[in-house]
Write a structure and sequence with these properties.
There is one protein chain. The chain is α/β, with parallel strands linked by helices. It folds into 2 domains: 138 residues, Aspartate Aminotransferase, domain 1, CATH 3.90.1150; 254 residues, Aspartate Aminotransferase, domain 2, CATH 3.40.640. 37% of the residues lie in helices and 16% in strands. It contains 13 helices and 15 strands. The strands form 4 sheets. It has a 7-stranded mixed sheet with strand order 2-8-7-6-5-3-4, with helices on both faces. A 4-stranded antiparallel sheet has the order 11-12-15-14, with helices on one face. Helix 3 packs parallel to helix 9. It is globular, with a radius of gyration of 22 Å. 46% of the residues are buried. The site of pyridoxal-5'-phosphate (PLP) has 11 residues, from helix 4.
Length: 403
């Protein structure tokens, strides 16, 4: 992977801020010119409405949207583009399924104690309304998924397993195929929150045999405000749409409505056309880079940083310690400092941008009595030199400010 060449595609690295060291891609990634151009092209050349009007501009929009759907399908190993629903983010996809799935009375939903709020709050709401019973699979201190605890929790009343594929703080990934196979043996469907997996390594939904898979495009070089909900063909028509309105229906009369088949059934109201078209460009770009190589690159950078801080006694990395189990995430704390202080100081002294706080995983931190953590996340445009500067800045902070 030629990182220096790739960096030339990202306007941020030729802006006045070109010397920033951006290590916050797990929150939101930078965007290459190819994506920005695709978005602009929509506004400059065919800024019309898709799927409704029949004139030439509208037709071009409709074609571009369906092309983007095909590209996304291919990107995640889905052979039928009609199984791809465009949402506004991962959160919306997870909510559509949580609120719209036909749970039988008394059904349980299994999550873990390491979920992002987006795969936690919808289930708390459903539980509070008496629609489901929400149960958590506990995670041991190692941070690794406990398959035995999962087997124990997978009782006959579990109708759905809804879990984070790759965790947004620890970087750990659950053994998807085993989790899915065990759930299917018990007749439960599986939804994976792919917000931190889809941007970083190859995904094959059909090979995993996962029933539902959701992710956000702004973490994978695409525009803000677009997400993807994939679900198996036989499952989608059984889910009630969260929104009703224009574009999602075939015919209505004063008393009743006939919804269109998926995916339109879930895409009520005018879509974020430029965003969806930009999504197609983002997927093209990532495929050009190669997802295997991208994953390797992130792991290499993570190893470099993890090795670099080994002798900093006041700096602790959240488990697991082995960087090869943390994909492209480096979560840490410095003794005597809040994570926000670390993030502000490192930006001030070295222009390094990292995330701090509880990362929308409040229950995880509160149950472990930790205030939060700082988190660096690596992506395709980060270099080894940037990582060495990051380590150097951490050393300076530890020497100057830690207790
Ligand atoms: C693991 C995980 N799930 C869900 C989300 C929610 O994504 P969004 O806010 O784009 O819907 C995030 C965002 O950081 C995440 O990291």
């Amino acid at each position: 992977m030629d990182v220096e060449r790739l960096r030339q595609d990202f306007p941020i690295y030729s802006s006045p801020d070109r010397d920033i060291i951006y290590l916050d891609s797990a929150c939101q990634s930078m965007r290459p010119r190819q994506v920005i151009d695709a978005i602009n092209e929509y506004y400059m050349e065919y800024p019309a409405c898709g799927g409704r009007s029949v004139h030439r501009l509208a037709t071009r929009v409709s074609i571009k949207i369906e092309e983007a759907r095909e590209k996304v399908a291919e990107f995640i190993g889905c052979s039928d583009p009609q199984c791809i629903v465009f949402t506004k983010n991962c959160t919306e996809g997870l909510n559509i399924v949580a609120k719209g799935y036909p749970f039988p009375k008394g059904a349980a939903v299994l999550t873990t104690d390491m979920e992002h709020n987006s795969n936690h709050v919808p289930w708390l709401q459903m539980h509070a309304e008496g629609m489901i019973k929400h149960r958590l699979v506990p995670t041991p201190p190692s941070g690794l998924f406990d398959l035995e605890a999962y087997k124990d929790a997978l009782t006959a009343d579990v109708a759905m397993v809804s879990m984070v594929h790759t965790n947004n703080v620890t970087g750990t990934t659950l053994p998807a195929k085993e989790v899915i196979e065990l759930a299917h043996d018990r007749k439960a469907v599986v939804m994976l929150d792919g917000a931190q997996s889809a941007p970083h390594r190859p995904i094959d939904v059909e090979d995993m045999d996962v029933d539902v898979f959701c992710f956000s495009v702004h973490k994978m070089l695409g525009p803000s405000g677009v997400g993807v909900l994939y679900a198996k063909k036989e499952l989608l028509p059984r889910i009630e749409p969260l929104l009703g309105g224009g574009g999602s229906v075939g015919m209505t009369d004063y008393e009743s409505v006939e919804f269109l088949p998926p995916p339109e059934r879930f895409e009520a109201g005018l879509l974020n056309y430029s965003g969806v078209i930009g999504t197609g460009a983002a997927v093209d770009y990532l495929r050009g880079v190669g997802m295997e190589e991208l994953a390797e690159h992130e792991k290499r950078l993570n190893r470099l940083v993890s090795d670099g801080v080994k002798d900093m006694e006041a700096l602790t990395v959240l488990d697991p310690q082995d960087p090869s189990l943390r994909e492209g995430l480096f979560p840490f704390n410095i003794r005597g400092m809040t994570s926000h202080d670390v993030a502000m100081i490192i930006d001030e002294i070295a222009k390094v941008q990292i995330r701090s706080g509880m990362h929308c995983m409040h229950p995880f931190f509160r149950s472990r009595k930790i205030d939060g953590c700082a988190r660096a996340s690596f992506y395709l445009y980060n270099t080894e030199q940037e990582c060495r500067k990051f380590v150097e800045a951490l050393g300076h902070i530890v020497d100057t400010f830690s207790s």
